[in-house]
Write a structure and sequence with these properties.
Elements: H1 2-7, H2 9-26, H3 28-31, H4 63-99, H5 101-116, H6 119-130, H7 134-160, H8 164-171, H9 176-212, H10 224-230, H11 239-267
Length: 273
């Protein structure tokens, strides 16, 4: 799989960008030229220069340092929200797909209800109930991801539970838990990997959108969506703040989409040549 990924030019670009993002997030305290929270009103709205390669914002904070630290928040939001969606969604999908019956019908109805709402609207409703904050944003995006993971895992479980190796395991006396987690779940892993990669970009973008609306990370947290929100009042005087921050969000989302599309082409036997 890794060999096929490296042969895909778009996937290779995405992997390189993701690796750079991870390195920046891990090494942020040691590589940032300035403290991302340090204010200097004397240097506010300064254009890109040697001292501040990407300029400063309205409060004189270094934009490059805040973008690098923002990678930490974006990756954390993506990983935790995907983890919440995967944990609960995969469990519900496995149970419904294997046992069927009333449980399957209830889950299918719940998925249809949740999928009827636009994702951003559902996340807004959840954050509106829980209140603004970074943790609530991760929880909202995670809850939004639960029905998506449940739907995919349920579909794979329904098609796998009648295969020969599952019937053989049931015939020799294997219990339901062993069959689900030892035989059916491995068949769901390719779909889970692809969906998790694609959902990372959605989670990062949704969290940035909620922070832009003031419902996510609160100032002075150096989160990308919050930085875009703070730069609205100085678009004419300092367009570099919004430009560079928006460019980083675009590159990050595009990188995860490139890798996710390539993984889907490799792991889906219907697309494999």
């Amino acid at each position: 799989m890794l060999r096929q990924l490296t042969k895909n030019r778009m996937a290779l670009i995405g992997i390189i960008l993701i690796c750079i993002l991870v390195v920046l997030a891990v090494a942020a305290p040691w590589i940032t030229p300035h403290d991302p929270l340090s204010q200097s009103l004397r240097d506010r709205l300064a254009p890109p220069s040697r001292a501040h390669p990407l300029g400063t914002d309205y409060y004189g904070r270094d934009v490059l340092s805040r973008i690098i630290f923002g990678a930490r928040y974006s990756l954390t939001i993506g990983l935790i929200s995907i983890g919440i969606g995967l944990l609960f969604g995969a469990t519900l999908g496995l149970l419904a797909g294997y046992y069927g019956g009333m449980l399957d019908r209830l889950l299918a109805a719940l998925i249809d209800v949740l999928m009827a709402f636009p994702g951003m609207l559902l996340a807004l409703a959840i954050v509106g109930i829980l209140g603004p904050g970074l943790f609530n944003v991760m929880l909202a995006v995670g809850i939004w991801s639960v029905p998506i993971f449940a739907r995919i895992v349920r579909a794979v479980s329904l098609s796998t539970r009648e295969t020969e190796f599952v019937l053989a395991a049931r015939a020799v006396g294997a219990g339901g838990g062993r069959i689900m987690f030892r035989h059916i779940l491995p068949a769901c892993i390719p779909a889970i990997i692809v969906l998790s990669t694609l959902r990372m970009s959605t989670a990062i973008l949704t969290a940035a959108g909620l922070s832009f609306l003031g419902l996510g990370a609160q100032p002075p947290t150096p989160e990308w969506g919050s930085m875009l929100n703070e730069s609205r009042g100085a678009l004419r005087q300092a367009p570099w703040v919004a430009t560079f921050t928006g460019l980083v969000i675009t590159l990050t989302v595009t990188a995860f989409n490139f890798v996710g599309d390539a993984l889907r082409d490799i792991l889906d036997p219907r697309l494999r040549q």
